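Cross-posting from the modeling subforum.

Setting up a comparison between two proteins and wanted a second pair of eyes on the formatting. Protein 1 (sequence, then structure tokens):
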Amino acid sequence: MRADGAGDEAGRVPWWGRLASYAQHGPLPPLLTGLTVVTGIVDAVSYVALGHVFVANQTGNVVLLGFALAGAPGLSMLASLLAMASFVVGAALGGRLGRRVAHHRGALLRTGTAAATVLLITSFLFAFGAAEPVEGPRRYFVLTTLALAMGVQTSVARRLAVPDMSTTVVTMTLTGLAADTGPAARAGARRAVVVVAMFAGALVGALLTLRASPAAALALALATTAAVAAGAHRTARSPAPWATR
């Protein structure tokens, strides 16, 4: 690497890789952090405006389904089951993408985020003009397309295999942040960034949903995902070592 810290396409570490303390994964950590923000936004929309259901956090849906079966008020078994089923379908689609574009991690992220962008556009169009909460058939269309997008996103992130960056789950990230000591604790900064990213997305998503509209929050999620897709496109032909590891 040059003394000025610049990187090149031949495999030197760019500045964003050093800032993320994850140089061996190139630009993937900051891009996946952006998708973690998206997760917070869309789960805020789904929980606040679609009837106490998650589209990304499927652990939460399993728990909510149990609550609904027990008769807890304000919960929908149909919504939880639909979100879980749609997420699984999206994850299967993401798995197929992972097998077809396995040769390059940047190209895989570009393809996965492009697919998620299309699904988020569909969600936004269904939500546009709807009040909070979203009701009727429109609610289930938004729920389904969001869960599909999150399934694709999570599956692609899993294939990319950047530690602590599943983009949709922070339970193990928090566990590692608290439990690891010694050399393993050096990952604490990036883990904290992941947790803050999801929190920030959830906060902004909830504020937009409550004070503007669900469509406004989804517009932000869509713009963020599209920005990640554009960033991934710039890396899709990089010959750097991170791209094929």
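Protein 2 (same layout):
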Amino acid sequence: MSPRPPGKLTLPHLVEMKRRGEKIAMVTAYDAPGARLAEAAGLDVLLVGDSAAMVVLGHDSTLPITLDEMLLLTRAVVRGARQTLVVADLPFGSYEVSDGEAVASAIQLVKAGGADIVKLEGAESRLSRVRAIIDAGIPVMGHVGLTPQSATMLGGYRAQGRTAHAARRLVAEAEALEAAGCCAVVLEAMPPTVAAAITTRIRVPTIGIGAGPGCDGQVLVWHDLLGASGGPVPKFVKQYADLSGTIARALEHYAAEVRRGVFPGEPQTYTMPDDERAEFEAGQ
């Protein structure tokens, strides 16, 4: 496996990773501390996902998050990760109306937010949006399969491509996104055989989430993989830590020490020269 090149990662390097058969590691990030930790751990790509609507802002779906909120989160991630490629989701309502709206929203995420790449969901009617954004000089990552912004139309948060007809449609959508100029395609919640077929058929990298091991890379939501989501997680998530439990125990310990008067102790307090203290106390 070739070492990660010095300096900021680039799109050509991701394509080269696909050619070499090297897996691309991607995770969501929503703030500067998380971005710094991910970069230090050697992650290749960070996704400022509209999943922040649920895991950060407390909504029941990804739909309510706004472009302004995505800009705030993207700026924070970019400040925390200087050498990692940053992808920012175009939130629902920021690109559906017209190509012009899509370009304006993408420019905001890149110019004001600092993102390297923008991501949008779907194919077919989205292809003109992809081409328009790319014509403006902004790389686009596609997303097919389960597309959370249109989950209601898909019958809920469920796997896609489970019939031969539906699987062929997903392959065609991924090929269309590549033809439109996408630099990579996220494949979400589909049978591994379908994702593997797409990965073989297109030249740009595929990033799987619930799509099996045959993709060129994988992405998971930060809070899900770290066990910090505080609730049930999708079938395709593997939890690598239990931060919810760790954080809860730490907070309980803190609260108990405050109530007992144990915290703050001497190590957490500032000293004062004896003569200054004596003068101060004498004047009270």
